């Protein structure tokens, strides 16, 4: 009821993020309007305070009680979504609402029964599902009992609304909690993927250098012992040390090159985390089938994905990004195509930046190509690379 909305424009549907602070003036306006719409049930209490004929003391007490109720409600529902309070804080704020709603409605009249709508929403949105299933009917029952004191007909009319809207909000609350858990899980996956790459490098360096360094140490000791009496044999040991060290250097370079070559699975996980952290709604497919794609082609597409997502996060100002992978059959063979499209305004530069220039060169070395430019509702980058390329595209930073 009070946590999500969408802004439909000519270019499509733009969602205001659940539980996130607004990023621009448009989102501030949308959220304020959305909150204002659902505060319509406060019109009756406000009108009652102004024209209800209460004593000065009752009017002041009612105004303070209404202000406290609205403050607790907005704090509990809007702040709690996406960044949950501790259970103790949720229960405290819920208890404040649960006390103020019946007290104000009982003492000031039926015009205040609408406060139970907000109490039901708060129960459905913030309480665990099992607790909400008890709290929502209880809110409706208390409202009806209070209404018997002032206006039973008004209470009966609101009873169904209070119960239904509360149960509807349990679904929204569960959706938000699931979204938060998924965001954390994706971040964990990306971290595990990075850790796996670090472990691979550690294993490779250990396997490569363990034998070589042991051999260099042994021959250095032999050369030291031979040097006084057999300089010719010592020179041979030094020559062997030079050969072993040169081969070790070659092996280390190859290992580091393999480490620096990005993997598409890792980049996809990092893409989801980066876009989510930047507040961009990401439409990202599963990892494509790479059985017949060589490592250099995969690396080229992974570099392209990394550069495209970096540009979306840093320069585009977009709030939606779509990633697609396609296979195209051409006269020269199968081509793997990456498309990254956002709905942003793009950067302020008049030409391609260093990142796109370097990416173009990298793809060309792999036999591929790059297309990037404005489209009707945003910016699109398309990278293509033959699946059978053997160029070394992962050796550059």
Give a structural overview.
- This protein is of the alpha+beta class and 397 residues long.
- 65% of the residues lie in helices and 13% in strands.
- The chain has helices at residues 25-38, 43-51, 56-80, 87-108, 115-126, 129-150, 152-226, 231-260, 264-277, 295-316, 354-365; strands at 5-9, 12-16, 281-283, 320-330, 333-342, 369-375, 378-386.
- It has a 5-stranded mixed sheet with strand order 3-4-5-7-6. Strands 1-2 form a two-stranded antiparallel ribbon.
- A hairpin with a 2-residue loop joins strand 1 (5-9) and strand 2.
- The radius of gyration is 32 Å and the shape is elongated.
Largest sheet: 5 strands, mixed
- By DSSP (H or I, 4+ residues per run), the number of helices equals 11
What class do helices, strands and sheet pairing give? alpha+beta
Low-confidence spans: 1-16, 390-397
- Give the rounded overall mean pLDDT: 78
Salient structural properties:
disordered C terminus, two-stranded antiparallel ribbon, alpha+beta, disordered N terminus, 11 helices, 397 residues, five-stranded mixed sheet
